Amino acid sequence: MSHGPGRARPPLRGLPLGLLRAAVVCGSALVVAVTLALAVWALARIGPVTLAVAAALLAASLLMPLVDRLARLRLPRALAALAGVLVLVLVLALPLALLGQQLVDQFDDLGRQLDEGIVRTRSWLVGGPLPIDEKDLDAVWAQFRAALSRGGPDPAASAYLAVETVGAIALALVLLFLILKDGHRIWAWVVDRLPERHRSTARLMGTGGWDALSGYMRGTLLVAAVDAAGIGLALFLVGVPLVLPLTFLTFVSAFIPIIGATLAGAAAVLVALVADGPTAALIVLAAVIGVQQAEGNLLQPLIMGHTVRLHPAVILVAVSAGAVLAGVAGALVSVPLVAASYRALSALAAARASCAGPTEP
Question: What is the 3-state secondary structure (H, E, C) of 106-146?
């Protein structure tokens, strides 16, 4: 049957096909962006729970090989998982128990040394060869100090934060035990809930993401230990005080890629400048640069291989976003989670490419 002459033409029929495709792509991208924004907002609203889950996953990626080996030795899985949790608690608690008071005392001294180093650096910048105005420098420093101390020391807020932190740690330990004990079964249950045609792809994505997470955490742990040992030895040989807190700071900062190593190295140089003068500071600076160059160009490629392939720009954005959303804890967990997500998506792309088959020439 033909359409009558007065019948209206469908509104999209006259539009170019390219414009329609662009509209579909833009609409899909907008839906994805809104969904991601809502997910990030929801996760930020339950920040302690999100960080507890992330911490449990990161710790499980380190401890799962140990638990699997104990289970293969016919130890009940629950006992093997409990042993893994106890190993983590001992590794974290033993140094704090042995060196805790010394660390606390020296960290107080470290704060004073850093303040004095910043004052000396400011004096050099104002009176040095660079054309820096003293008022501009003071304004920038005042804004920085205000950002660090935003909110002030409210006793009620401090008590709430302490309770929240203890609760998050307890939740992370319980989740760690459950993941170590039943992680394989939990993942199998999740995969079985999917349509059958998607199960193999989901398994590939899970395996790829978990392998990337495990490789990243093991590699970063070893790199952090080598960094801390190298820089700590250099500080000891130069005679810089506060070697213990600076070494501890270097170890922890290594888990925040790029930014952490820079901040820890700057702290070591400032303490050397205040304690022993410019010559010691230059020696420490050379040692820090040497250790970090050896780590970046030799150690990381050797240890991590192709486990994680992230551009430095992606790492910086991930660390910055994690820090904005959840402070230092967010900066610590952001890069490994991004690395795992990247490997999972790479596995998805590879699975789709293999299903598509070779293209005709």
Answer: HHHHHHHHHHHHHHHHHHHHHHCCCCCCHHHHHHHHHHHHH
* 82/174 Cα distance (integer angstroms): 10
Ranges under pLDDT 50 in the chain: 148, 150-152, 359-361
**Which stretches of the chain are assigned E, i.e. beta strand?**
none
What pTM did the predictor assign?
0.72
How high is the pLDDT of residue 180? 94
User: DSSP secondary structure string, 226-262?
Assistant: HHHHHHHHHHHHHT-S-HHHHHHHHHHHTTSTTHHHH
Q: How far is CA 189 from CA 183, 184, 244, 290, in A?
A: 10, 9, 46, 48
228 neighbors 254 (Cβ within 8 angstroms):
yes
The CA radius of gyration of the chain, in Å to the nearest whole number, is 26
The candidate with the shortest Cα–Cα distance to 148, out of 115, 116, 178, is 115
* Cβ count within 10 A of residue 318: 22
Domain boundaries, the chain: 45-353
DSSP state of 197: H
Instruction: Please tell me the distance from the alpha carbon of residue 158 to that of residue 141, in angstroms, as a whole number.
Output: 25
As a whole number of angstroms, the distance between CA 135 and CA 351 comes to 59
